[in-house]
Amino acid sequence: MSKQNEEERLPKPFDAMLQGWPVAERDEAAWDDGAEKIAERLATAKAEASANLALLDAPLPAERGEAGFDSSPRAAEPPPRSLAELARMSLATQDAKSDAADIARESLSVASTGRASVPMIAEAEAAAAAAGQSAPRAAPPPVATLQPLPARPAPRSAAGPLAMAAIGLVGLAAAAVIVVRAQRANEPAPLAAAPPSAAPAAVAPKPAASAPGQEIVALKDLAPSGGAAAGPKPSGEKLALKGAEPKPEEPSAAPEAKPQVAPEAVAKAEDKKDDDAAKMKPAATAGELPDKPSTGAVQAAIGAVMGSARACVAGQDEDSRATITFGSDGRVQSVAVSGKAAGTPAEACIRAALSKARVQPFARATFSVGSAIRP
Amino acid sequence: MSQKSDRELVDAARKGDAEAFGVLVRRHQKRIYRLAVHLLRDAAEAEDVTQDTFVRAYGALDRFDGRSEPFTWMYRITVNLSLNAIRSRKSGRKATTPDDPRIEGLLADRKSVEADPARLASDRQAALALAEGVDQLSETLRTTLILVAVDGLSHGEAAQVLGCPEGTVAWRVHEARRKLRAHLESAGYTDDSGKS
Known about the structure:
By secondary structure, chain A is mainly α. Chain A has helices at residues 12-18, 28-42, 45-48, 73-76, 83-93, 99-117, 119-130, 159-186, 213-222, 234-242, 263-280, 295-312, 345-354, and strands at residues 320-327, 332-339, 366-373. Helix content of chain B is 70%, strand content 2%.
């Protein structure tokens, strides 16, 4: 202390205050009391074990700047490490046959491939190597360690098999729907009228609870129940048609950019849509035919072909109107066009387009609905 | 019994002589309490740490290897317990408060020789500045400074407590005093003139 230099010499009163700095005095009784408390605790001290051996260790870390302390900023905090460096460290410390070592090798292989695939990085590394400079990061390990790894068994976890099972069930349900639709396309009679044995085997299993709603409904509706003709379930119909519901008509979405489409082309383009829409509709038996097609079904049917009809009047500045008459079989019997398109080539185009609309069979002889056709 | 050295008392306590350890307690509890107060800045916590120090030391007597003095061995336990207590506080106590037991200790010492209220107020300001300067040091520098400058341990004894070379203790004390001086100068206290 006598050799303290000018730099560390404190102002006079503070040196005196610091040396022997007292704390608030306690009377002797307080010390006696403290000693007694300690003696009481000592009786159980062995039981307490006081086995916290860390208390006997050196208490403090090295201070920045003192001998043995690396004061460089990189040493003060853990240096940022790339994944490749971590993988190399792992390889250096792990058992070469352990899973962690395998993962490390795999990571290095991916990193090496990735770096080589980016021209900028590859060129920079090549330039550094040519200049004899060390790469900014640690040199990659020998090529031998970057050999592609043999296929490793998938890690066993509880989530993996469950996810795979869920995906499998969804796929199974989708496959069943596709099969059933294909069969319905080749089989004009309502599927519900077929004997139960005619149902595809893939339909028999209960659909997965997590399958998309529409597919589930389709499976339920298509599956025979007790050999009796299964009528369409209202909820099933609603859901089945949900996917085909048209968007609200948007006047601003007039297809100015669309070229004038010939009726034949429109008809061809709509064939597939119509078939799909027909497949989506639930089967119905003659005894359970609705009096008329539901509003939703009609809107869906017209909406499916309205795009083609609107293409027929593209470029016109006024709306046209069409009255569509459905027969009891659900097909369009006639289309009456009025307005700007009437009497023009667009009328035939509109008729051809709207004639492709289909609804489910109904009891009435005909059912007509009007619709505006906006350019 | 009270004439025995610390080592003799430790040896006796190891053999089951509780009274011998009681003598050690009475001999060193004031020093350990004072060290704990300076480290913790809280009298109640310091008392708890003082008790814990002796209890832990008694429980670990078998691990005392005799390479250091018993009191430096107990000091190490005190420092560790105090640092643990500081780190386990829910709120970090950074500011130096006027009711700091260290301030009261300094002022009580001054009151006995100074009756001028203005001078006492000035002393209080100086004590606060000193305490703030010490508290702004890192744990390492602060603990080393307290052991050497406040408690009066030699560098060798402090090195035993802290488990580091004497040269390291010397460097830490130098660094702590340099920073403390800079703090006091920034607070307006310069050289021998006291408050500028």
